[in-house]
Amino acid sequence: MSAETRPYKDVLVVGAGFGGLYAVHAARQAGLDVLCLEAGAGVGGTWYFNRYPGARCDVESIDYSYSFDDDLQNEWVWSERYATQPEILRYINHVAERFDLLRSIRLDTRIVSACFDEQTSTWRVTSERGEEFEARYLLCATGSLSAPNRPAIPGIDDFAGEVYFTAQWPRTEPDLAGRRVGVIGTGSSGIQSVPLLARQADQLTVFQRTANFSVPALNRALTHEDQIRVREEYSERRRKSRLSGGGSPHLAYPKNGTECTPEERLAAFEKGWATGGVLFGKTFPDQYVSEETNRCAQEFAEAKIREIVHDPETAADLIPNDHPIGTKRICTDTGYYETFNRDNVALVNLRKDPIVRITEWGIKTEGSAYELDVLVFATGFDAMTGALNRIDIRGTGGASLREAWREGPVSYLGYQVPSFPNLFIVSGPGSPAVLANMVLASEMQVDWLLELIRHADAQGANQIEARADATEKWTAHVQEAAEETLFLRANSWYLGANIEGKPRRFMLYVRGLGTYADICTRVAENDYAGFEIS
Ligand code: N01
């Protein structure tokens, strides 16, 4: 049947964020008939929804951008070292227009179910409005951090004031002038928004359950000279990034922290701190495996917090004491700790004074009461699995993906789950996902998957399915790799620990993008070992 007469597409992409948009472009380039379904009213995925004040990327803009087209790369001008959400969204819209992607994207189309038809080897997906779409391959680019977490705090629906979630911030900016604002949550979203909310609100109260480490971004405008240098270095920068652990070209100190004298270590940490943001977490190669190096990094960061925050009790409350630094993602801020020196800002340490309930007028803690006009939830996401588990996905024999992941997500290379042939995940559990630069990683993954489809098509095969033994082995390998590090010492969302009742399984491949890419290349060279192609 020719593509024109077939009632179905070659590829349905779910999600028009960075990964999904590239999938549309690359699938077209590969000669496939592709349609993308996006829940939002615009493209951008996480960057469409997370438009809270202060939202910015913590990967440098010149790295957190597509590499697939030299002209795009050289013509787009990033104005700052770390781009704001509006600038990233402008970029994404520019890419969608430039490559004419919008004609293959249906917006406002939230998928609620997907079912594999064993007779035709196609996926049939249904939207919230009951529309049906069908394709040979279903490529889920649904995002690692796209299912917002609504916390189970008693009385959450009783509050009579305005309620906002950072992950679903309204398109019309709320006016906070003269208002008493409360923020629950001090992860990256809370830490980025607090300094701006403090400037707008009359009074800001930050409700912190767990302190997080944050490192100043040291953001700055990119100069004309920067722009010239970046263009000269781009291809080399990208090459290094693809080989690196995190998908950006920065190198750790050439020695382990444990091999350095205290003076040398201190100097390296000062340099790491001055580099800014998450890069501090990569000061030494052994920072996530050596308790000693990690403790030194932690003590260094603690001293910085004490230096910045004037009130010693507030500073003590802001210092994390329950996880090695970096085992929860290090936050990147602009003026977060300084904000607690303002007269209109108060920190409530919920470990000392827990929330009893949310009421009509605000928040009642065990020891106090806070009257509020506005409540902001920066309470994170049901990460890695949440977006897919919110869709009823049924594979062969009616197998349910939720059921397959009941004890934690399993996957082969992060791409596929047995019993779900022709369903692929971009940035899925078992891949490096958020531990790497998501833009570069998703380009690499989409290219690899399209090559796999081309390989199957060339054989006249119509089904690709991960083998159970390969999946078991890979899932165990992901876990073992994490066990060699300090990551399992944190109750992080990497482990599913932030969601009540969610099974604990470390969901990310910690050995880095370069290593992961090598493994994928070897699998492909080995005739796609671990996949059943029929
Ligand atoms: O979410 P989080 P996030 N009562 O899960 C608290 C990426 N990101 O949106 O730790 C009280 O980190 C919770 O407390 P606790 C980045 O990868 C990147 O901030 O569970 N508090 C925590 O403090 C990041 O890691 C960027 O005790 C409750 C907070 O809510 C990831 O997204 C910007 C609670 C949630 O923090 C997620 O970050 C933004 C309750 N019942 C996000 N429930 C950049 O690029 C939850 N909390 C810079």
Describe this structure in words.
The longest helix has 21 residues, at 438-458. Helix 1 (18-29) runs parallel beside helix 13 (438-458). The radius of gyration is 23 Å and the shape is globular. It is an alpha/beta fold and 534 residues long. Helix content is 32%, strand content 16%. It starts with 8 loop residues before the first strand and ends with a strand. The protein contains 15 helices and 20 strands. The model has no long low-confidence stretch (mean pLDDT 97). Strands 1, 2, 3, 4, 5, 6, 17 and 18 form an eight-stranded mixed sheet that branches. A five-stranded parallel sheet has the order 7-16-8-9-12, covered by helices on one side. It has a three-stranded antiparallel sheet with strand order 13-14-15, with no helix packed on it. Bound molecules: 3-acetylpyridine adenine dinucleotide. 3-acetylpyridine adenine dinucleotide (N01) binds at residues 56-58, 145, 151, 153, 184-190, 192, 209-210, 329, 332, 350, 378-381, 434, 493, 498.
Secondary structure: elements and pairs:
Elements: E1 9-14, H1 18-29, E2 34-37, H2 46-49, H3 70-75, H4 85-98, E3 105-106, E4 111-117, E5 122-127, E6 132-140, E7 162-165, E8 180-184, H5 188-200, E9 203-208, E10 214-216, H6 224-243, H7 262-275, H8 291-308, H9 312-318, E11 331-333, H10 336-339, E12 345-349, E13 355-358, E14 362-365, E15 369-371, E16 374-377, H11 386-389, E17 392-394, H12 401-404, E18 423-425, H13 438-458, E19 464-466, H14 468-483, H15 513-525, E20 531-533
Parallel strand pairs: 1-2, 1-6, 2-3, 4-17, 6-18, 7-16, 8-9, 8-16, 9-12, 10-11
Antiparallel strand pairs: 4-5, 5-6, 13-14, 14-15, 19-20
3-acetylpyridine adenine dinucleotide is lined by residues 56-58, 145, 151, 153, 184-190, 192, 209-210, 329, 332, 350, 378-381, 434, 493, 498.
